[in-house]
């Protein structure tokens, strides 16, 4: 990296406004005063006065990436910020000067493997910090705030190492008293001479506590994850309450009987029926206690407030609710609960609460308003403007107004911000994902890239109205020209340029092969520059719509480009961390800023200030013109990647947006002579757009309100006059009453004074009497006490004499005891001296005996030593032989060991080489992983885009298919008249096919009858069918007779007409006309005649087949009679089953007859027969028919298929039955006769 050179000519950045909130830090909302709120945002701590709209900032170490918790001291003078790492730290900041005072760490001589302080608190006097170091140690440490010195330490969790600590609570009056709670942990500890000792309740095996706070010096309240309160007093468990149904907490026990009845001495309240629901989170969070009561978070988005009535009684005052702003997204695995409360704080005046939840928003509510009796839901209000949640995908600045617009990728909102008044002017949420946007220079229009289309929106006074839509999906880069007459939008790797006035696609710019990451227009709109991830920077001539210059660096994926006002040079950044100045397709200069790549770039309107962003949220202010060594200054305010950056129209502010939804407005300093010169007469535009309907409604509302105001003023003045009259009358009455009261009081005062004087005189007389009585009483007491003193003195003298006598007696007794003691001591001494002499004699005898035994032991010892020497010599010789053998083996093993050592050295070298290779491969693997992650993101985006395009294509294909289908239907209707004759001819084909199939079935059945007894039932079925056909032929014969009669009648009419025509033989023209009429009257169509001929031929064929089958049946019956044999035992049952099947077959035949009749009716409708209507009428009706040839064919095929399936099923069943029994000829003929009778019936 190039060396950073600090120069006075480089512009400086100072944060002016920072919008956002970090929800991953515990304790992320605290009051420093009644108006100032402390919260983390990006890489800063913000102290925001929302009333005065003032912000102050504290820069966090390492951009705040390792910060875990923020705590403010009870006196609001110290701010504690904990940071995780190999050596976790707590930074202390001064609340007044906002400067870092001290960094607290464990001493170097203390070995610790913990990486984070899970919880810590200030003591009540703000002099010490009590911190708990997390796993695996779970130790408690106490530090001095002024010196950072470690005062004491202890074990935080259980002594056996079980349990985890969630919260530490410091006593509000005693710095040496704390409480630790957590999962299977509850410890109340007191410190004496830097030694912590546990006391009180210690049964924590089944406890899972989430928060704790001290109600008073000796009373502790804790909350559990299952919604229960446990209150401890002086270390003992006092009561357990259910938080969900607890209107009043009363800790006072009424009488001693209640205490005796309670075996555990606790008051336990159980949850009411229906108050618990499966799947709800009943954890009690963020428990805080203050002099007027306490508050805690319960369930999702609810804060319960209890008011303190007495030291032992608390009443539930309110339940405050956080607005539910949950957003459901289709790709999310699970719904994120946005209103789950993370932190809770109260101001020093105890009249406002501030809360934070998982959503990036501060909420507040005022306390001590309406209580629960009002039955109103009290909601928290947003503190400050409503903020984005999730990454900010697009941002653009207006050229006419002090506003800028942003879009949220996750929350799908558009917001218009005013950085002068620090308010949100407009906010709207959409249903589609938003990817990119651009604002018109006037600030009245914007183009927004949604997931389905690119929309041109008009910014109204209170809404975004869609003016035009363009078929561009997932547009991430779009930009208006400097004058606003054009706008460009990316569509894949294509740039489409539209006219802002006519919305016409003027031209498309083709050339990029990768994603387009940046576009920039010149001031005169004649040129535009674009860059892409494939490593190309193109400069486009708008007039000719062609490329005027290009620069390609394949090793660098460009991420941003800006062009100067005159378009002579461009500045581009990319993944290699260089800033390149491009002039006429050449790299004029390039300097390294950050070797891991740069993200965005911005150039001032004066072309004299350049800003780039990289290194996870760091902004670099680069000096222009660029030299060989980069001169820049670094400014860190964001904690994540900056996605968008822009300079305002007057070059006074720089606006940046990051992935963590933080928006920062930086004030530019040291810009004398570098900012654009704004005309003195220029004033920011204040114009807004409003529809005529809204304007008329608002004017009408204003007129109504003015009229109402006038009426209210008149009414108020009238009421005031009436009130003045009434007040005058009341004052007069009060004055009169007051005068009367004064007179009464004067009289009462005089009477009271007289009474008082009389009382004084009476009191003086009483006092004199009391004095005399008292003096007489005192004299009597003195006389009595003198007599008593004389009596007591005499008693005293007697007691002294008695005491002297007792003393003499005790002295005599002591002398006697002394003499007796001396005599007993002498006797005891003589007795023990005699015993001592006896013992001395015994000792001398034992000494002589010991000497004799010693001599004997010496002899035995000498013998044992001789034996041992002999054995040692033998063992020595044996072991020398073994030693020589072992030495030989050692020499041999040393040689082998040398060889193995050489092999080991070579293998170690190979291992080192392999480790080096593995290390290099791991580095390459990490690099490839990064590349793969980027490519996977690109693939995911492309897949999403492909899926969306596929959906569009499917929609279009569906529409095309529907249009084709409609076209086919129209073609059918169009050509139906052309194919009428062919359709009429094709109607005969199903009948021929049916006749052929039936003929084939008959042939199959004949062949089956030749196979012994198995085909008897099949022959019966076929015989029945033939009889049905015979009856059909009889019916057909009858119809033919009827036709013959009709033909004779027609012949008769023809003869009559001929006879009448013969009368016109002399009148030739009339005769000719009459002949033509007769011809048209009696002549039939040729097609009809052909159809009749074919019908006659098919009937003759049918009669021939019937005769043949009847002869075949007779021969088969004779064969059955010959092949008859006796049946089995179940012959009768099978015959019954066979008869049942025959009956079912007959019913099927009846159905078939009905179908035949319906078919003949259809034939008459089609004009094939004259039974029901004439041929011309049938043809006329056929012209109106809708069914096509294919549909009729399919219908007949389906019917024939169904009938064939039914016949096959019956054949198989008959074959199964015939395989078991052989029917006699008499029975066969009897069954056949029964069938004939049934068929005739």
UniProtKB/TrEMBL annotation:
This protein's UniProt keywords: Coiled coil, WD repeat
PROSITE patterns assigned: WD_REPEATS_2, WD_REPEATS_REGION
SMART domains: WD40
Coiled-coil residues: 695-896, 939-1043, 1179-1220
Entries under InterPro entries matching the protein: CFA-57 (IPR052993), Quinoprotein_ADH-like_sf (IPR011047), WD40/YVTN_repeat-like_dom_sf (IPR015943), WD40_repeat_dom_sf (IPR036322), WD40_rpt (IPR001680)
Cell inner membrane in keyword set: no
Pfam assignment, any one: WD40
SUPFAM superfamilies documented for this protein: Quinoprotein alcohol dehydrogenase-like (SSF50998), WD40 repeat-like (SSF50978)
Top-rank taxon, per record: Eukaryota
Protein name, UniProt field: Cilia- and flagella-associated protein 57
